[in-house]
Amino acid sequence: MSLSIKDILQQKPIGTTQEVKGWVRTFRSNRFIALSDGSTIKTLQLVVDFENLEEGLLKKIATGAAIRAKGDLLSSQGKGQDVEIHVTDLEVLGESNPEEYPLQPKKHSMEFLRDIAHLRMRTNTFGAVMRIRHHLAYAVHDYFHKKQFFYLHTPIITGSDAEGAGEMFNVSILDKKNPPLTEEGNIDYSKDFFAKETNLTVSGQLEAELGAMALSKVYTFGPTFRAENSNTSRHLAEFWMIEPEVAFNDLNANMDLAEDFLKHVIRYTLENCGDDLEFLESRLKEEEKSKPEKDRSEPLREKLQFVVDNNFRRVSYTEAIDILRNSKPNKKKRFNYLIDEWGADLQSEHEKYLVQHFNAPVILFDYPAKIKAFYMRLNEDEKTVRAMDILFPGIGEIVGGSQREERYDVLRGKMNDFGIDEKELDWYLDTRKFGSCVHSGFGLGFERLVLFVTGMTNIRDVIPFPRTPGNAEF
Amino acid sequence: MSLSIKDILQQKPIGTTQEVKGWVRTFRSNRFIALSDGSTIKTLQLVVDFENLEEGLLKKIATGAAIRAKGDLLSSQGKGQDVEIHVTDLEVLGESNPEEYPLQPKKHSMEFLRDIAHLRMRTNTFGAVMRIRHHLAYAVHDYFHKKQFFYLHTPIITGSDAEGAGEMFNVSILDKKNPPLTEEGNIDYSKDFFAKETNLTVSGQLEAELGAMALSKVYTFGPTFRAENSNTSRHLAEFWMIEPEVAFNDLNANMDLAEDFLKHVIRYTLENCGDDLEFLESRLKEEEKSKPEKDRSEPLREKLQFVVDNNFRRVSYTEAIDILRNSKPNKKKRFNYLIDEWGADLQSEHEKYLVQHFNAPVILFDYPAKIKAFYMRLNEDEKTVRAMDILFPGIGEIVGGSQREERYDVLRGKMNDFGIDEKELDWYLDTRKFGSCVHSGFGLGFERLVLFVTGMTNIRDVIPFPRTPGNAEF
């Protein structure tokens, strides 16, 4: 099998004959082709002998064309590359009419590229983002596998609406125009595919807990959905979530796991995605040129290295409220939501302040029970729960987790308080009835992680085909 | 951090003090606890000194209870284990009332266990299946990663209904009882979340092709859906699919990839899931005891080794039809669908016959264009397409793939023939317009693979929470 461009540039087998296939990025002076095959952000230089090339062929060598080229790999005399192929055999496999091809070698806006998401992976920026996304996903699987976690596929279509993590998409095969009705005139879901009303999952956590109570350590990595009309640069209607769940772990062990995990996967990209990160780093620098110096972000790889090198600051909610209450932006009423008293829900502006205040990733823990989900472990103070959120520079919350309420009676009581039907979740309650134990887990929105690592600013640009209100193209 | 039971049984650190946490499988003679933590199918023997144990505590040591135990790890004098812990400190973390706990140490039917899928992962059989499922998933990611493929998350919610791979689930947030209507009285999807009608994906292939035309080698591994009312042991409404797609690969390279890939992941389980496979192998043997000898399957690991060791037989559709037409079951009219002439669609009975005939996994290729999808590469004979199906002993089709039609005009023609709206798939056509090239890929239903490797007979038993007609529990 022939070598990829990544292999050729790494191994530099000078003096060998190589055959490569890829897409023309640029063609200059009728002589130098920059060829990409997507295996790396770098292009391979092909030198063609235009005097001996048929003119018809020469014309077809245009940006975006697919070609096959063969020749000797030699040291390059030119700047910018160590090796190049001196082409003796060239074939254009698929043309690309320069009048029509939307991706010309110039800067395109992110908005324009979103409209042609079917082609944008061919650009430097999206190629880099997609390769880093791959490496992050691989690092996730590899991390958990080596720590003896089992990958659990929790259901996507769910009959339970209990977690209350957000608005849900309904899944149905009923005729929308003439749906079957019950005698009372309601939709007769017994006629639907699953003989009940079903939705797309908002989280695999409850099912992951079932796995953890059997296999001790499990994790999910699958799509989750929110039918929320949030047209922001931070929200997707369809996104991928990672949810580890560990039996016998308390909240401290949970924090240890989350911190170690995040550092590992970020370190992995620093070690394995150098070229792509370098490109995105200079892209970001270029983007921010027009900003005043104080508003510019630090160099991408330095930001990542900082997270890897430093302990996350663990701060209780109560302590955080104190800090926020006495902060300048609170006193000067610069926060949109002023912090008056204990119990307030933290907004993204507060999270950002805290990260800046500590100049480190922050783990907030022990939140008021009232602002967190029913399944979180109630502390002895009966006011707070063993919840944690991890806040990252620039993007705010990246991880949310908790120790779970393992006491049957307390959990039942909480479900009642939250108005959750016990019958709906009898299977969940069963785990507290039979061999219950302390256990904990967390959720990480994968796109938030990709956003952080790539330094991109809009979450629609870190997933191949984003789903947002009004948009389900491709 | 404390060692898992798997670690303890492998490393045997005799003479050290160990603390373990897990669930009681059995407790006999008031003395021997078989403890499971799910890390392995094996249990760890704990020896308790019942004379010095409080009676209240002793009573709570029941099947299913969660416990923490500490003591010295010593060589075991008893049969069945090398090491055991002599417990000096024991705590019951979560009780399990034997009167209520459904999983008692006896044989339960698969049907019963399906009803309590929230607990069944605690059994030997489902623990083994879930661990093997994990290892297979890991092997998939690891295989493609090492071959420089990029993992691509193709969309789950899709606005296009073009592939025609099967019935789809509708995704909507419209009020079913009072849906918004257009002036013509139709459902007004412009008011829906995505401002158009959307469904759950049946395949990520078309989007994977977009990835391959930019990054050369990509694969998907995500959930796919079929709203088909198939209540069989081979069908799920929600299942996970793996779809690699490679630019510049023709059908032969595609077959090579599929064969190498399947052998790799199966070999991986033979090397890494020995204990679980051994258990499932004897389980299967036990299950088939009552069958006449000739109907019994070969030992599980031998079956897997056979696939790893042997070349898959590559047979053209035309040759296969000849074989089937002249076969005994065809002549004696024992097939439900008799094979009369070239062009017939192959049924599962024919696929099974071919696998037996060749006594090997079979790759069928070059199918009639009429019975295959529009995107498959038309051969020069203009009658057949470069499709391939891989047939495995016992389960029939496990992989379906093809070389894709890379010629713009031919593809457009095929879309017209198949009644597919060009405007719906203009993005797909664009890849044939700009830098098109030969490319190929295939799809593998992950649960079919788990079914094959584990020797289970019902596909509902190889996914944690199966979705089938009338069933979306948990």
Could you walk me through the main structural features you see in this protein, from its secondary elements to its overall organization?
Two copies of one chain form a homodimer. The relative contact order of chain A is 0.11. By secondary structure, chain A is an alpha+beta fold. An eight-stranded mixed sheet of chain A has the order 6-10-11-16-15-14-13-12. Chain A has a five-stranded mixed β-barrel with strand order 1-2-3-5-4. In chain A, strands 7-9-8 form a three-stranded antiparallel sheet, with no helix packed on it. Chain A folds into two domains: 5-106, Nucleic acid-binding proteins (OB fold (Dihydrolipoamide Acetyltransferase, E2P)); 122-167 and 202-312 and 360-461, Bira Bifunctional Protein, Domain 2 (BirA Bifunctional Protein, domain 2, 2-Layer Sandwich). The first copy, chain A, has helices at residues 5-11, 55-60, 110-115, 117-120, 124-146, 205-215, 251-272, 274-287, 300-309, 317-325, 328-331, 348-358, 408-417, 426-433, 446-454, and strands spanning 17-28, 32-36, 44-47, 66-75, 83-94, 150-151, 157-158, 170-172, 198-200, 217-225, 238-247, 313-316, 362-368, 384-392, 396-403, 439-445. Chains A and B meet through strand 1, helix 5, strand 6, strand 7 and strand 8 of A and strand 1, helix 5, strand 6, strand 7 and strand 8 of B. Strand 8 of chain A pairs antiparallel with strand 8 (170-172) of chain B.
Short description:
Chains A, B: Belongs to the class-II aminoacyl-tRNA synthetase family. Two copies of one chain form a homodimer. In chain A, 32% of the residues lie in helices and 23% in strands.
